[in-house]
Fold this protein.
Amino acid sequence: MKKFLVLLMMIFAVSGCGGSVQDKTSSEPEKVQTVEKTPVATNSDKKILVVYFSRTGEEYSVGNITKGNTAIVADVIAQKLGADTFEIKPATPYPDNYQECTELAKRELESNVRPALAKNIDSLAQYDTIFLGYPIWWSSVPRVVMTFLESNDFSGKKIIPFCTHGGSGLAGTAREISDACPKAQVLDGFEIRGSIAQSDPAQVESIVDDNLKRLGLQ
């Protein structure tokens, strides 16, 4: 009889342990590892703008081009950063003929004129950092770019110049930009030869990558 009672007690004890395990399993759901996806930036999230002036037509040492040297570089920057772009266009386009264009650019520089814009930007306030691209004309920023700079408020913004050229580099144009936008911070920019922009997309991408890393943007 005593052995029988001991046997019953052992059976109840084993059943109790089984019930405890089952309750624990049902009260704690199985943990599944999840990976959080980085949100894709929308236009409203963007804080970087690529502004540029570029010219097509007959080009020094390149020939006739259908996409401007600076426009090519601007597109690479914008693509890598997911940035918006704005193209500076004069109300009266510059001549396609290279000689005529250079002569007009020289007259504008000597007279320090401000050519009218075809259209101004209407959303500059939302951007913190502005890449500003232009060709070097007579060792200076084209006057139509100066029109754009003086027509907008760059207070508190960072401006990063980039240019295309035939051998002059930035040619001190950062000073012109600083003078036109005294309340902005003009950072060290970079330059690319126009012939490279037209003929060597891999080198353009490499130069852009190097400078974006230097600026802490990549």
User: Anything to note?
Assistant: The first strand starts at residue 48 and ends at 52.
